[in-house]
Specification:
- Helices cover about 30% and strands about 30% of the residues.
- The chain is an alpha+beta fold and about 120 residues long.
- The strands form two sheets. Strands 2-5-1-6 form a four-stranded antiparallel sheet.
- The model has no long low-confidence stretch (mean pLDDT about 85).
- It is built from four helices and six strands.
- The longest helix is centred in the N-terminal third of the chain and has 15 residues.
- It has one domain: 2-Layer Sandwich (Alpha-Beta Plaits).
Length: about 120
């Protein structure tokens, strides 16, 4: 089964936020980088990419045939989507185990595990 793991950053410090990132020790920063490197090298993982900050988003809707755009994400959320990866696993338990290894899961964020629908 293939799963998409959506990484909701929450309050997770990232290198894009120098103030929050700087509060982590060099050792903690190294552990975060090492954890993501190990995740990307895990068999069955197809790495995604880190996304821009939520405020850089443009939301698109079509109403009455007109394309409408709004600056920012669709909803105002504390746990904005920060990145994703794909994982081919035997079952949901394996995907949950991998999700628990993503640093954001233990540093103020959350990981949404969603099965992919094949055959579309």
């Amino acid at each position: 089964m293939k799963y998409m793991l959506l990484i909701h950053q929450g309050t997770t410090p990232t290198p894009r936020d120098p103030e929050a990132w700087g509060k982590l020790s060099e050792e903690e920063q190294g552990r975060v980088f090492a954890a993501y490197k190990a995740l990307n090298e895990t068999p069955g993982v197809t790495p995604g990419v880190q996304m821009g900050e939520p405020e850089t988003a443009t939301t698109v809707r079509v109403e009455d045939g007109r394309t409408l755009t709004t600056d920012g994400p669709f909803v105002d959320t504390k746990e904005a989507l920060g990145g994703y990866l794909f994982f081919e696993a035997d079952d949901l338990d394996a995907a949950i185990e991998l999700a628990a290894r993503i640093p954001a899961a233990s540093m103020g964020g959350a990981i949404e595990v969603r099965p992919l629908v094949e055959g579309w």
